């Protein structure tokens, strides 16, 4: 049972994650300011390059730091983190430099993405309106997770704040563009999902051994322009799957 008398959490919030981890959170749920703050704080941590820190990553609203307890004390690292947390208003921080804008061609609906009509109906739109909305949206990679290189992308317009399905789809293919709760996910592997399969892409998200093994990085922005199923089929032979990118200013 939730204790409604408890004092609300104040952000940013620093918490311990095991004996060798610290987590700095900027909100309790996904929002544009909280995600921007998590990305900016992660970039700031990477630029600090503190001795003893072994891993830095970010999630939807948090930045995580893993350290070697034999190389740096928990108390020392906590003090440094608190100083960095208080050094600026992270909810107003600029996004890190070097981000990319990706354009990933997508076939919507049809035989490749059979749940577009259902998603459009739940959102109160026609299929044509849904495709226009989704194909014109620009979303941010808020986090990677679940499988190698698999992105969570958001936030979509409020009309796409639709729930997950009540039952799982047993299998969607690699490259499936699925949707729920104002977010996209592109599947980097074949897997079950509770999100609706609205589009299909051909761009490889993960390349083992490549200089940049993940196509997308947290903070990157992505557009999903519409192509036909026939055009997407031809893109299967393209090593980039028809995707292109440019560095954001």
UniProtKB/TrEMBL annotation:
Residues 12-216 form the Carboxyltransferase domain. SUPFAM superfamilies: Cyclophilin-like, PH0987 N-terminal domain-like. The keyword Hydrolase applies. GO terms for molecular function: ATP binding; hydrolase activity. The keyword Cell wall biogenesis/degradation does not apply. InterPro entries: CT_C_D, Cyclophilin-like_dom_sf, PxpB. Keywords: ATP-binding, Hydrolase, Nucleotide-binding. Pfam families: CT_C_D. This is Sensor histidine kinase inhibitor, KipI family. It comes from Alloyangia pacifica.
């Amino acid at each position: 049972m939730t204790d409604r008398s408890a004092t609300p959490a104040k952000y940013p919030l620093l918490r311990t994650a095991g004996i060798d981890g610290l987590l700095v959170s900027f909100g309790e749920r996904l929002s544009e300011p909280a995600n921007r703050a998590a990305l900016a704080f992660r970039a700031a941590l990477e630029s600090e390059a503190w001795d003893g820190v072994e891993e830095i990553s970010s999630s939807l609203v948090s930045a995580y730091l893993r350290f070697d307890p034999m190389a740096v004390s928990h108390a020392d690292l906590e003090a440094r983190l608190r100083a960095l947390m208080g050094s600026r208003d992270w909810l107003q921080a600029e996004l890190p430099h070097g981000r990319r804008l990706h354009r990933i061609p997508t076939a919507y609906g049809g035989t490749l993405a059979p749940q577009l009509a259902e998603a459009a109906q739940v959102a109160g739109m026609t299929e044509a309106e849904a495709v226009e909305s989704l194909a014109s949206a620009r979303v941010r990679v808020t986090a990677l997770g679940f499988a190698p290189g698999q992105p969570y992308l958001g936030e979509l317009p409020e009309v796409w704040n639709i729930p997950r399905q009540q039952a799982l789809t047993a299998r969607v293919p690699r490259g499936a563009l699925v949707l729920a709760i104002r977010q996209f996910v592109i599947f980097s592997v074949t897997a079950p999902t509770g999100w609706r399969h609205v589009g299909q892409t051909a761009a490889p998200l993960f390349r083992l051994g490549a200089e940049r093994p993940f196509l997308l990085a947290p903070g990157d922005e992505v557009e999903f322009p519409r192509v036909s199923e026939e055009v997407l089929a031809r893109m299967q032979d393209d090593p980039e799957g028809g995707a292109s990118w440019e560095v954001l200013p």
